[in-house]
Every structure is written in C-alpha cells, then in structure tokens.
Design goal:
Blueprint: H1 2-78, H2 83-114, H3 122-156, H4 158-161, H5 167-184, H6 186-190, E1 192-198, E2 203-209, H7 213-257, E3 262-264, E4 267-269, H8 271-281, H9 293-358, H10 369-388, H11 390-397, H12 399-408
Antiparallel strand pairs: 1-2, 3-4
Helix pairs in contact: 1-2, 1-10, 1-12, 2-3, 2-5, 3-5, 3-7, 3-9, 7-9, 8-9, 9-10, 9-11, 11-12
Length: 415
C-alpha cells in the first residue's frame, strides 16, 4: 500500500511538473509570437513611413516648389492689380516658402538617422524648419479663407461689397494675416532658441528650450487646432454659399431671358432693341409726302445706317458684358475649386488633431507614437498636395493664365 501511495505521489508530482513546463512553453511561444507580431508591425510601419517620406520629399515637394514658382512668374506677367490676383500671388509665395522649409528640414532628419553632427545639433535645425513650415502653411490656409470670404460676399451681396475689396485694402488684410499667424505663435519663438554646448571633444550649437516649454507646446497645439477648425469651417460655408448663389443666379437669368422672346430677322432679340429699331425705322414726318425721291432715299439710307450703327453698338455692349460676366464666373469657379482642395486636404489634419486631443496616448513618444508618426506623414502628403494643385485650377479656369503659361513654354495656344 505504501508503494502504491508513493507511486501515486510520484505520478502526481510528475504530472504537475509537466503541466508547468507545458505552460511555460506555451507562454514563451506566445511571447515569441507577440514579439514577432510587434516586430512585423514595426517593420510595416517603418516601410510605410519610408514610402510616405520618399513620396513627400522626392516627388511632391519638388513638384510643389516648381509649380509655385511657375504660378508666381505667370501671375507677375499677367499683372497684379486686383485684390484677387494679389491674394493668389501671396498664396503661391506662401506655399513655396512652406514647401521649401519642409524640404530644408529633411537633410537634418537624414543626419539624425546617420548620427552625424557637423558642428551643430541636426535636431535643432529640424525643429525650427518644421515649425516654420507649419506656420507658413497656416498663413496659406488663412489666405484661402480670406479669398473665399471675399468672393462669397461679392457673389451673395454684390451691391454692398462690390467696391469694398480694393487692391490696397487687400494689401492691408494680407499683412494683418501674416502678423496674426506669426503673433499667435510668438510664445514658441520666445521659449526656444540655440545655445552652445560642450561635449567631451567638441563644442556645438544645440537646441535650447525654456523650462515652461511643455505648457507652450499645449498652447501651440491648441492654436493649430482652433485655426484649422476655423479655416476649414469658413472655407466650407463660403463655398456652399457661393455654389447656392450661382445656381440661383443661373436659374433666374435663364428664366428672365426666356420670358418674352421676340424674333427679328431670324434671331431672338429683346424688346428694347426691337422698340428702338422700330422707332428709328418709322420716324418719318407726315408732312413730307410730296417730297422728291432723292430726299426720301437719302433719309431712308441715313436711317438705315443709323439703325445699323446702333445695332452694332448694342451688340458690342452685350458682348462686353457677357465677356465680363464670363471672366467673373471663371474667377468664382477658381476660388470655389481652391476652397474645395483646401477643405479636403485639411480634413486629415483636423482629424489627427482631434484624435490627439481625445486620446493623449496618440502622440509622439507615447504608446501609439508610431501610428501617430504614420498619420503625421499622411497629413504632410495632403499638405503638399494642397500646395501644388493650384496650377491645374488656374490652367483650367483662367484663359489668360493658360495663354501666358503656354507662351512661356514656347508653345502656341489655340484660340
């Protein structure tokens, strides 16, 4: 009996030991696969980040810089003499500077990756260039919002705002926009700078941050979030109002032109032209019935020439009005498409800012920092698209821009 008890005890101990060993193996296996899964996710995130950076740096950045240079050259060649042309030129210049600052930050990123420090800390230069690019992009978005507001007021309330937005008033508003955007981020410039640091064998320039920099970062994030939200809302509302106003205007003009059509010599003319022609054709005195044929023919020929001249003047005036209205319509369409591009490209930025405010872990150097970096790269790609697509809008809706661009490229534009 004792031997049986000893065997049972031995068997029990052996079974428990085997169970613990199996549990340890399963735990190690799960941890190994978890590490493999985490390493695989890290690898995928690394490739995505590399792919997005290659697109943004080598393709979109260079394309955005080139298109904005072309935009500025063509706009200067056309002449900057209106508020709209001034806003478009400042928009192209700001997009160019913002994209150039983003391009200048990339060599520092490469030096940080390779651990190279050529007399200064690469992170310091990267820090300032990234913030400068972001501030200039805020200026660009604010200029787009002002342009949409200006066109919206001129379309919806033309009698009240037709002559308000002059060239010099536009200059004043644009200067105020620049001062406002840079002034709101003045704490950033006051709480950061450069300082000399000494290591074991060298002295180099490094980034200096004030002790209250954490509070400044919270303020800067709040400013960026509020500014993006206000600009996106303004652009959306103004675009919607312009589209609705244009649809109402086209329906009203179509109904008015078809209200009383009058056929004269095989063509549709309005009542005023017909009345003027009739009054001039039949304005002969009743007392000249016995006049000679020479005077009658001279009077008729004179009235005929006079009516033809009046008809030509009327047609020329109507052609000028139609050409002017067509140009205004193209300007409005240009602004609408620019606003749509700005709205779509800023949605990702607004969504990322909202997510980071809702979940503090969705930030750099946090739990979801790698995913935050991926979405940050996606936002930068949309930013570059917003800065580079304007040339296609100008080429499509601005005939003079298209001709000037083709002439500058030594092509002959078709009439």
């Amino acid at each position: 009996m004792e031997s049986i008890g000893e065997l049972r005890t031995t068997k029990t101990i052996t079974t428990s030991d085997t169970t613990d060993e199996v549990t340890d193996v399963i735990r190690d296996f799960n941890m190994e696969h978890a590490r493999e899964g985490a390493s695989y996710i890290d690898m995928v995130i690394g490739y995505l980040n590399l792919y997005l950076n290659i697109i943004s740096i080598f393709i979109l950045t260079m394309f955005a810089i080139g298109t904005n240079i072309v935009n500025m050259m063509v706009l200067v060649k056309q002449g900057i003499n209106t508020c709209v042309s001034l806003c478009l030129f400042c928009l192209a210049a700001t997009d160019f500077l913002s994209t150039l600052a983003g391009l200048c930050s990339q060599p520092s990123k490469i030096m940080m990756f390779l651990n190279i420090r050529p007399g200064f800390d690469p992170f310091a230069f990267y820090f300032f260039m990234v913030y400068m690019s972001a501030i200039l992009y805020d200026v660009s978005n604010t200029l787009t919002a002002f342009l949409s507001l200006e066109r919206c007021l001129c379309v919806c309330l033309p009698l009240q705002f037709k002559d308000i937005f002059t060239f010099w008033r536009g200059v004043a508003v644009i200067v105020c926009i620049y001062l406002l955007c840079f002034g709101l981020l003045l704490p950033h410039f006051l709480s950061s700078g450069l300082e000399m640091r000494t290591s074991r064998n060298s002295t180099f320039l490094a980034l200096w941050l004030s002790p209250d920099r954490a509070a400044v970062d919270v303020y800067v994030d709040a400013v960026h979030f509020c500014q993006t939200a206000v600009v996106t809302t303004t652009v959306f509302v103004c675009t919607l109002l312009m589209i609705v106003s244009l649809n109402r205007s086209s329906k009203f003009q179509g109904g008015k032109s078809n209200e009383f059509p009058v056929t004269f010599s095989g063509k549709n003319t309005n009542n005023s032209c017909v009345a003027q022609t009739k009054s001039e054709d039949f304005a002969q005195p009743s007392e000249s019935k016995a006049a000679d044929k020479t005077s009658q023919s001279g009077t008729k020929s004179g009235n005929t020439v006079k009516s033809l001249n009046n008809g030509r003047n009327t047609s020329a005036t109507s052609n000028n009005k139609s050409a002017h209205s067509s140009r205004n319509l193209n300007v409005i369409k240009t602004v609408i498409v620019l606003c749509v591009i700005c709205f779509v490209c800023n949605l990702s930025r607004l969504a990322l800012a909202t997510a980071s405010h809702i979940d503090p872990r969705f930030r750099l150097n946090k739990e979801h920092g790698k995913w935050y970096q991926i979405f940050l790269s996606i936002c930068y790609v949309f930013q570059l698209l917003n800065c580079s697509l304007n040339i296609f809008v100008y080429y499509r809706f601005n005939q003079s821009f298209r001709k000037a661009l083709l002439n500058s490229l030594f092509w002959k534009s078709e009439k």
